[in-house]
Design a protein that fits this description.
It is a single chain. This protein is of the alpha+beta class. A hairpin with an 8-residue loop joins strand 8 and strand 9. The protein is built from 19 helices and 20 strands. The chain is about 35% helix and about 15% strand. It is globular, with a radius of gyration of 28 Å. It has a six-stranded mixed β-sheet, sandwiched between helices. A four-stranded mixed β-sheet has the order 4-3-2-5. This is UmuC domain-containing protein.
Length: about 600
């Protein structure tokens, strides 16, 4: 059996910055009421503290603490309810758009509400070319490709913020310095500039990590919280001079703290290394382990190789090659790209957790609340004014009254095609009265009814209809039994986004719909016009569908099941629209030829 334990190849040419907003939920409230900054302050969801500021932490409070325990430990704590997450979504979107303004490549990826990655390799490369290596102390960092005067002065011989390791020595100005070291210097100064601008202009502090991979940048930032930044410096890999900084940094991390190794995988790894089931801490609300199995414990085990990891971790739902992926993560090798900023999210998801949810009336009530939140979120994230379709990132999601007025001028950036319902049932009680912890989720997906895109009905009316016509049948497929279930979580999501033809930009930013609207004016002096068709001919043309594409006559198609083509206005079922849009491709190619 092949048990090749060769460390994976590395690519360390990138400069990636990871932002983590400090105490984000609490900071949103503090932005609205600055007086909270000097008080012990916490945000509550259900009966749990989901976050608290550092003054509260100084007095003994922490995340996932029961409210009753928090009040006992710190009687003067100020607590705000945070179950309505709209304010957090809105703040997150505002800060994301602010950071995106610093990017040249649009490689800006958001993780949750409070984390953002930026790949700034291109900006660093540009400034490396203009750097005077004989005068590193007095340098200028250009932050605009088009304006050489826009930027800031900095000392390229030093690291901005904290280096890892702490004993790292700054560059001798007169001496030679390798490119990777200098690139990390530049990346750290850019990160510091962005961090300061975020605080000065938006009022939010952040903790930042700078590294050559997404994995390392996320982890290394945790070393100096809050309001700090850390850069992991070369040499990253082992050499004749000693171990590399990368493995030294990673080895002490508990295996469950490594991004990409989730709860289930980490439990399998702990069980394998300990040769017994890892013990849970029953006092933790959301589960945890009493065991401490580190990256070094797993990576250094002679039985661990990509092949053994594949056998150990593969199974239903696991991606192919999971063993090799985890092997790479154990060695700090992560080639994952920072995703480009997208106007349209890949999915919109709403969920809530429960102490007890075990009756159908209660389930229906929660489904209705989640459906209202989901539809509201769809309108915020996917609806834009007709005249502002090219500026969807400038929409103010907090101003709901403004968003939902002038309905006739709104259009959808994308239509989600799939509705997904997910639940997390609790395990049944054991004979001794205890319950085995379960984090298993079950899901059911179905086509998203087209009526949810209607803007003439209220959110409440659409949510009620969505529950009755779609979610309740989906729920019964997940839980066919009439009773006996008890849910700890329910999630609703819309996925499989189809960008609206003629309305959204292509990946390169061209607005196809606007191009067609302008082509008559641009080409008016070069067109040969034929006689207009008669009304009868015009009606016949509008009724045509692409040859060979049709639907069964015995299937009834109501108005809610039809889609409207953004190019010609033809209405037809959703399954026929994809093929119909190909009918316009020759015209699109011709139009593009005229404009190039």
């Amino acid at each position: 059996m092949d048990t090749d334990r060769t460390p994976p190849a590395r690519k360390d040419g990138r400069v990636i910055i990871h932002f983590d907003y400090d105490c984000f939920y609490a900071s949103v409230f503090e932005k609205e009421n600055p007086a909270l900054k000097s008080l012990p302050f916490a945000v509550q969801q259900k009966q749990i503290i989901v976050t608290c500021n550092y003054e509260a932490r100084r007095r003994g409070l922490h995340k996932l603490q029961l409210i009753r325990d928090a009040r006992r430990i710190c009687p003067d704590v100020v607590i705000e309810l945070g179950e309505d997450i709209s304010r957090f979504r809105d703040a997150s979107k505002e800060l994301y758009n602010f950071l995106k303004g610093f990017s040249w490549s649009r490689k800006v990826e958001r993780l949750g509400f409070d984390e953002v990655w930026l790949d700034v390799s291109d900006i660093v490369d540009y400034n490396m070319q203009t750097l005077n290596r004989h005068g590193l102390v007095q340098c200028f960092f250009q932050t605009s490709r088009s304006d050489p005067m826009e930027g800031f002065s900095f000392d390229a011989s030093t690291i901005a913020g904290h280096p890892y390791p702490q004993k790292y020595k700054h560059v001798n100005v007169a001496g030679a310095v390798d490119d990777l070291t200098l690139r990390m210097h530049l990346g750290s100064h850019l990160a510091q500039h962005m961090r300061h601008q975020l605080e000065q202009q938006k009022g939010y502090t952040s903790t930042v990590g700078i590294a050559t991979t997404k994995l390392l940048s996320k982890l290394v930032g945790n070393l100096n919280k809050p309001k700090g930044q850390t850069t992991i410096m070369p040499p990253l890999t082992d050499s004749t001079d000693g171990p590399g900084n990368l493995q030294t940094f990673l080895d002490d991390h508990e295996i469950g703290k490594i991004p990409g190794i989730g709860f289930k995988l980490s439990q399998k790894l702990r069980d394998f290394i300990l040769e017994r089931p890892a013990a849970f801490d029953t006092g933790l609300i959301y589960g945890g382990t009493k065991e401490h199995v580190t990256v070094a414990d797993v990576r250094g085990n002679s039985k661990v190789s990509p092949e053994t990891l594949e056998k150990l971790l593969s199974g239903p739902g696991s991606p192919h090659g999971i063993g090799h992926k985890v092997w790479c993560l154990l060695h700090g090798a992560d080639d994952t790209e920072v995703s480009e900023a997208k106007a349209v999210p890949s999915q919109i998801s709403i969920e809530d957790s429960y102490i007890r949810l075990d009756t159908l009336p209660d389930v229906l009530q929660e489904l209705d609340a989640l459906a209202r939140s989901l539809i509201t979120r769809m309108r915020i994230d996917l609806l834009v004014h007709e005249e502002d379709a090219s500026k969807e990132e400038d929409l103010r999601p907090g101003d709901l009254e403004q968003i939902f007025t002038q309905v006739t001028s709104k259009k959808w950036l994308a239509h989600p095609k799939t509705l997904r319902l997910t639940t997390r049932p609790r395990s049944p009680l054991q004979p001794d009265g205890t319950r085995i912890r379960s984090f298993k989720r079950i899901s059911h997906s179905a086509p998203l009814p087209n009526f949810v895109f209607g803007l003439s009905e209220s959110v409440e009316s659409l949510a009620d209809r969505l529950v009755r016509e779609a979610l309740l049948p989906m729920y019964r497929k997940l839980h066919p039994e009439k009773s006996g279930w008890n849910l700890s979580l329910v999630n609703l999501a819309v996925t499989n986004m189809a960008e609206t033809a003629g309305e959204s930009k292509t990946a390169r930013g061209r607005d196809i719909g606007n191009m067609f609207r302008r082509q008559d004016d641009v080409l008016k002096d070069f067109q040969i016009r034929e006689a207009s068709p008669s009304p009868a001919e015009d009606s016949e043309l509008e009724a045509q569908v692409v040859p060979g594409v049709g639907w069964d006559d015995d299937v009834e198609h109501g108005d809610d099941d039809l889609e409207c083509c953004g190019d010609c206005g033809t209405r037809m079922p959703a399954f026929a629209m994809v093929a119909h849009r190909r009918f316009h491709l020759p015209a699109l190619s011709a139009a593009q030829g005229h404009f190039t």
